[in-house]
Specification:
With about 325 residues, the protein is mostly helical. Helices cover about 85% and strands about 0% of the residues. The termini are far apart.
């Protein structure tokens, strides 16, 4: 395998992992005000992501850093073309981080309301804008960007609701299941529309050879999302979360498959790549560091695997 192909696959993996992990973070942040009826339940909901949300953001940092090092022209084109939405994403992530960190330190309930608002807005902005950015990158259409944004926002809400149901007990768990089913009313049609656009876009530019497997990945993503909804209905929280996570992962695979070999309009992977020496050094660094990072994060999820109970004051 050529190093350019290898690093494109690595970057696709990092972005897809970010979408899966931050997807439920964003969903939890958006759902917390709706699912919690008191401060104990708010702590219960936000506690589901408390130990992991900042680690999940590392996937974004790593993905962008890998793009900068391995494909600087792709990095430059993406950030310059989508400067405003990406700045808004960063603002949202900063506001969300401040809200999550400060709400446990402020003394007054009115201050916690502002923190909760920051978490909600800081979760909704990236959840919508990442979908809009990548949809526009693929189709160069405002309509496609809107569909992509609605798709990513609604799927994050669904994914987050399933995660809350998996990680909590009591009334919050029941409300989370209902929220997941309500979110599916928007998420499933949006997924069918957005995921269908991926192979259609590839066919429109004449890349017929990639269309069959992109259709397979897109249809599998739709099926996994539908399975997640059905499993939530039956109360199988663990399997439902695995299904929604698989749906996002399959959608990510289809997205980056459609972007190959031209991840930016008028720019191929070969043209965007760094020199062979740089890619070689990056490969050794990645092969050494990445397994440790993945192992540590897997260990942290294992340590904090138990369901959370609302504290009674």
């Amino acid at each position: 395998m050529e190093l350019t192909t290898f690093w494109f696959a690595v970057i696709a993996f990092l972005w897809t992992g970010y979408f899966v992990l931050e997807g439920f973070d964003f969903g939890v942040g958006m759902l917390a005000p709706a699912l919690a009826r008191n401060e104990a339940e708010r702590k219960q909901v936000l506690g589901t992501i408390g130990p992991v949300w900042d680690g999940n953001e590392v996937w974004l940092i790593t993905a962008v850093g890998a793009m900068f090092a391995a494909f600087p022209a792709w990095y430059a084109g993406l950030l310059s073309e989508f400067y405003l939405p990406i700045v808004l994403v960063l603002v949202g992530l900063i506001v969300r981080g401040i809200g999550l960190e400060w709400r446990g330190k402020v003394q007054h309930a009115s201050d916690r309301v502002w923190c909760d608002l920051g978490v909600l807005v800081g979760s909704a902005l990236p959840a919508f804008l990442w979908g809009a950015v990548f949809a526009d990158l693929l189709r160069s259409s405002a309509a496609a960007a809107l569909v992509g944004g609605v798709f990513s926002l609604s799927v994050c809400v669904l994914h987050g609701a399933v995660f809350i149901a998996l990680k909590t007990t009591g009334p919050v768990r029941s409300r989370a299941r209902r929220a997941a089913l309500i979110a599916s009313v928007v998420a499933l049609p949006a997924a069918v529309t957005a995921l269908s656009n991926i192979p259609v876009a590839t066919t429109a530019i004449g890349a017929w050879s990639a269309a069959p497997w992109l259709w397979a990945a897109s249809l599998a993503a739709m099926a996994a999302l539908a399975a997640g909804i059905a499993l939530t209905w039956r109360g199988r929280d663990g399997w439902a979360f695995a299904a929604t996570a698989s749906s996002i992962a399959l959608g990510g695979a289809a997205l980056f498959g459609a972007l190959w070999p031209a991840p930016f309009p008028g720019l191929t992977v070969a043209e965007a790549a760094s020199g062979p020496y740089t890619l070689g050094v990056l490969t050794w660094i990645g092969l050494i560091a990445l397994p440790f990072v993945l192992g540590y994060q897997a260990w942290s999820y294992w340590v904090f695997r138990k369901r959370l109970v609302a504290e009674v004051s």
